[in-house]
Amino acid sequence: MIRSRSGLASLLGRLLVLLAGAWALQVQAAPDAALGRSKAQLCFACHGEQGIAVQPAVPHLAAQPALSLFYQMVQFRNQQRKGGGMETLVAGLSDADMRDIAAWFASQRPPPGQGGAQAERVARGQVLSQQQFCSSCHGARLQGQKHVPRLAGQAQDYFLTQLRNIRSGARVDMDGTMGSAARGLSDEDIEALAAYAASLD
C-alpha cells in the first residue's frame, strides 16, 4: 500500500519508464523475413522470389546484406536514387516494411557464380579488385557486409550499368568512396571487374 504522494509519484515514474522501454522494443522489433516475403510480392516479378533476377539488367538480391538492401530502398523512397520504377514501388513502404523485405532477400541462398566469361578478363578483374582494395569494403570474396552490397555472383549487365553511373556521377554513392574508386576506371576495367564479380560463387 502506498502511503504518500512521493511513493505514488515514484511508482508512476517507474511504470512510465517500463512503458517507454516496451514501446521502444516494439518500434525496434527484429525484422521478420517470413513477413517480408509476403510484403515483397511485387518485387518477385523482376528480382525473383529467391532474389535471383529474371532479367539481365536487374540485380540479384539474394544474400545481399539486409542493411544494404534497406538503405537502397530508403534512397529510392527518398528520390535520392532512381531507376526501374523502384522509386514508385517503394513509395508507400514504411521502414519496418523495408526491413522485413530486406530480411527476406538477405536470408536466401546467394546466386551461383556465372560461367562463360573469358578467363583472361576474369583474371584481370581479380587484379583490379586487389589494386582498388575492393575487399576492404565488400569483403574478401566480395560477399558484402553491413551496408556494403554483395558483388559476388551479381548480374554483369547490372554491375556494368551501376559502376558506369557511379563513375559519371549519375548515381551518387553514400559517402563518395565508390565515386573516387570508379573515377579512374576505363570501360575495359569495369567490364573486367564485372566479369570477376560475376564469376564468384
Helix content: 55-70%
Query: Order of SSEs, N→C?
Result: HHHHHHHHHHH
| CATH architecture descriptor text of the largest domain | Orthogonal Bundle
Number of strands: 0
**pLDDT < 50 stretches:** none
The CATH class of the largest domain is Mainly Alpha
Describe this structure in words.
- This protein has 3 domains: 1-30; 33-106, Cytochrome c-like domain (Cytochrome Bc1 Complex, Chain D, domain 2); 119-199, Orthogonal Bundle (Cytochrome Bc1 Complex, Chain D, domain 2), CATH 1.10.760.10.
- Helices cover 55% and strands 0% of the residues.
- It has helices at residues 5-27, 33-39, 44-47, 66-77, 86-89, 95-106, 119-131, 135-138, 156-168, 177-182, 187-199.
- The longest helix is centred in the N-terminal third of the chain and has 23 residues, at 5-27.
- The radius of gyration is 22 Å and the shape is globular.
SSE layout and pairings?
Elements: H1 5-27, H2 33-39, H3 44-47, H4 66-77, H5 86-89, H6 95-106, H7 119-131, H8 135-138, H9 156-168, H10 177-182, H11 187-199
Helix pairs in contact: 2-6, 4-6, 7-11, 9-11
Which terms would index this structure?
3 domains, mainly alpha, 201 residues, globular
Write a compact overview of the structure shown:
The protein has 201 residues and is mostly helical. Helix content is 55%, strand content 0%.
